[in-house]
From TrEMBL, chain A:
Keyword Signal: no
UniProt name for this protein: Binding-protein-dependent transport systems inner membrane component
Gene Ontology annotations of biological process type: transmembrane transport
InterPro entries on file: BP-dependent_transpt_permease, MetI-like, MetI-like_sf
Residues annotated as domain ABC transmembrane type-1: 152-345
Keyword Transport belongs to the record: yes
Classification of source organism: Bacteria, Pseudomonadati, Pseudomonadota, Alphaproteobacteria, Hyphomicrobiales
Automatic annotation (TrEMBL), chain B:
InterPro entries linked: BPD_transp_1_N, MetI-like, MetI-like_sf
Coiled coil feature spans: none
Entry-linked PROSITE patterns: ABC_TM1 (PS50928)
Name of the protein in question: ABC transporter, membrane spanning protein (Oligopeptide)
Localization in the cell: Cell membrane
Lineage: Bacteria, Pseudomonadati, Pseudomonadota, Alphaproteobacteria, Hyphomicrobiales
Keyword Nucleotide-binding part of the UniProt annotation: no
Membrane topology listed for this record: Multi-pass membrane protein
Regions that span the bilayer: 12-30, 104-126, 138-160, 180-200, 242-264, 284-309
Family: Belongs to the binding-protein-dependent transport system permease family.
CDD domains in the cross-refs: TM_PBP2
Length: 354, 318
């Protein structure tokens, strides 16, 4: 028994006793179940397993602390109305916002942050990390860290572009279908059915095999694949608004369709649409990452997280973690967006769950 | 009973039409190529004679509609034409791989379905507790991770660092069944992780939705024990959403399987499709897409039919 193991259990048991004494039920259950789990993993894995748990718990605590501080920061700098909403945000949502903020910074200021260019060959292939290269070199001897930073700009930027295009197409068609109805509604509805009846990745592969893999094709194909989701949601939401009396009044005033959409319907259906934008971004981002991973997305030498994983995958068979970092970057952003969307949906659904 | 049969038949007819439309889409998408297939395959440097020869060999001198019906008739009998790159019959290239892919998907489904339904019900019963919150965060993380991320993590920890399972799922004909299960465990586990997360969340939502209905409240108020509320009152009505959830997620496996096969170098249809896309081997791409799309549509169809059969309310539309 090393001092680390003794200190570890002493801390956990002390903390659970304190929690029990002050009647903090949730904290007690959390800490005490962690103690029980540690007993089992400690017997099986020994001190290294306990060290792993300590690191994980420490990182979780750090993430929680950061999100708490970030939420307080946001509450202070935002105006009255927004800060009131932010106060109700759970820590997970605050964490999501913090991650999105960090990614945005990395993307916008990539050339300033990254020590080397994204296509700059600076050392031998798969060189190990040193002072100049934080994460070592990739399969061509380019700086891995710089490429990950640039990836924030390329991968996320492309996904954002495709999402916006999908959103504009889907929302416009949905709004038109809801206001005009008739043959356009039928036509767009059936078209959406057909697109949605083919799995998205399969559809994308079919289209990319035909039109080749350049950026414009990827953006348009991905936007077409995901616009039916937006179309259906917009049509449903706008369909509820269209039957309202004030729309009738506007129609009687003689307002045109475009005015109705822009001034009457859209302002009354923004909340679900914003949440949908977040979800849609996750789908698009994962699809493009998958395509890049298959070698059919963003083409080299542009730095992109999906293709970086594939190019450096051989390192994994030597027990190296580095190829997983870009993949983790993809996962982290998607999780972050999902956290924020979860909170938004929860808010707009008005606490429906029992 | 006549009503049910009619409803189911109607739904099946709709499914058949969807399948037909999708086949048209898959076939005519290739017609959108600038120039035609022969030109695209041979490239810019080809002489007019070679292009004309290939065109004749592929039957491109006939109008597209006639070729479509030939292709569709062939596809229905399992004949998808000839690969442009290797000259091999597409059906020969696909048949073994299709069995492999089916095996992998079934393997994953057999593990994922019971586990996720049980976990989903447990999480729904313990809703808003710490356990539920942790499960929520974990499933969300699993859904948000790209399949290749999960796959490589499993390779790193279970194959490279500890050597429990092989990292590459190579198959050979003379393997025993146990050996086969062992070799394909990591790809199956990757799929299980993704699908279980989806299924758990959807099962949880379905059960919570159900538990909020007034008749459950009534049962509770008249003093029925909690387990009986679940088994006798909630479960019969929960089958419809659960069947739906299962079928939808099996359909989700279809997309997941492509990436997972590439990660583990598993000899399945997904891998074949990705290779064919890179080589622009259109007959193979079309065949694979049709197979994936058909499976997807059939599973969605199964979900709808299952919902009609288990939910009497759907049989009497207002």
């Amino acid at each position: 028994m090393s001092t680390f193991v003794i200190g570890y259990y002493a801390l956990l048991i002390g903390a659970s006793c304190l929690a029990a004494y002050f009647n903090k039920r949730n904290i007690f259950i959390l800490v005490f179940s962690l103690t029980m789990i540690s007993f089992i993993t400690g017997i099986i894995g020994g001190a290294p397993a306990l060290r792993f748990i300590t690191t994980a718990a420490g990182m979780l605590a750090l993430a929680a602390g950061t999100s708490y501080a970030f939420r307080e920061f946001l509450i202070i700098i935002t105006p009255e109305g927004v800060s009131k909403e932010l106060r109700t945000a759970p820590l997970t949502a605050a964490f999501g916002m913090f991650v999105i903020f960090t990614y945005a910074l990395a993307g916008v200021f990539a050339p300033v942050i990254a020590p080397f260019g994204e296509a700059e060959v600076i050392s031998s292939a798969f060189a190990p990390p040193d002072e100049t290269m934080l994460l070592g070199a990739d399969q061509l001897g380019r700086d891995m860290f710089s490429r990950i930073i640039y990836g924030a700009r390329n991968s996320v930027g492309l996904a954002l572009l495709a999402t916006m295009l999908a959103f504009i197409m889907g929302a416009l068609a949905g709004l038109l279908a809801a206001t005009k109805g008739g043959w356009f509604d039928q036509f767009a509805g059936r078209l959406a059915d057909v697109i949605m009846s083919v799995p998205s990745l399969i559809f994308a592969l079919l289209m990319l095999s035909i039109f080749g893999t350049n950026l414009a094709v990827i953006v348009i194909v991905v936007a077409v694949i995901y616009s039916p989701r937006v179309f259906r949601l917009t049509r449903a939401v706008a369909g509820n608004v269209v039957v309202m009396d004030y729309i009738e009044a506007a129609k009687l005033r003689g307002e045109g369709t475009w005015y109705l959409i822009r001034r009457e319907i859209l302002p009354n259906s923004t909340a679900p649409l914003i949440a949908e934008f977040g979800l849609e971004f996750c789908f698009v981002f994962l699809l493009i990452a998958g395509l890049s991973f298959l070698g059919l997305g963003i083409q080299p030498p542009t730095a992109d997280w999906g293709s970086m994983v594939r190019e450096n995958a051989t390192l994994i068979s030597f027990g190296e973690m580095t190829p997983l970092i870009p993949a983790a970057a993809i996962a982290l952003l998607t999780v972050a967006v999902n956290f924020v969307v979860d909170w938004m949906l929860f808010r707009s659904s008005g606490l429906k769950e029992v | 009973m006549g009503d049910i049969l009619q409803l189911v038949l109607k739904r099946l007819g709709l499914g058949a039409i969807t399948l037909l439309v999708v086949s048209i889409l898959i076939f005519f998408a290739v017609e959108l190529l600038p120039g035609d297939i022969a030109q695209a395959v041979l490239g810019q440097g080809a002489t007019p004679e070679t292009v004309a020869a290939l065109r004749e060999k592929l039957g491109l001198d006939q109008p597209a509609v006639i070729r479509y019906f030939h292709w569709l008739a062939g596809a229905l009998t399992g004949d998808f034409g000839v690969s442009l790159v290797s000259g091999e019959r597409v059906s020969a290239a696909i048949s073994d791989r299709f069995v492999n892919t089916l095996f992998l998907a079934t393997y994953a489904a057999v593990i994922a379905v019971p586990v996720s339904i049980v976990l989903g019900v447990i999480v729904a019963l313990l809703r808003n507790t710490l356990f539920d919150r942790v499960a929520n965060v974990l499933t969300l993380t699993s859904i948000s991770s790209p399949e290749f991320f999960l796959g490589y993590i499993l390779i790193l920890y279970l194959a490279v660092k500890s050597n429990y399972f092989p990292a590459i799922a190579s198959l050979s004909a003379d393997m025993s069944f146990g050996d086969l299960l062992h070799r394909t465990f990591l790809p199956a586990l990757t799929l299980v992780l993704v699908v279980t997360a989806h299924m758990m969340r959807m099962t949880r939502a379905a059960i919570i939705n159900l538990l909020a209905s007034p008749y459950i409240e009534m049962a509770r108020l008249k003093g029925v024990p909690p387990w009986k509320v679940i088994v006798k009152h909630a479960l019969p009505n929960a089958w419809a959403p659960i069947i739906n959830v299962v079928a939808l997620n099996l359909a989700y496996l279809i997309t997941g399987v492509v990436l997972v096969e590439v990660v583990f170098v598993y000899p399945g249809v997904g891998q074949l499709l990705v290779d064919a896309v890179a080589k622009r081997d259109f007959p193979i791409v079309q065949a694979c897409c049709l197979i994936f799309a058909a499976t997807f549509i059939l599973l969605n169809l199964a979900a709808d039919v299952g919902a009609i059969l288990t939910n009497p309310r759907l049989r009497h539309p207002k």
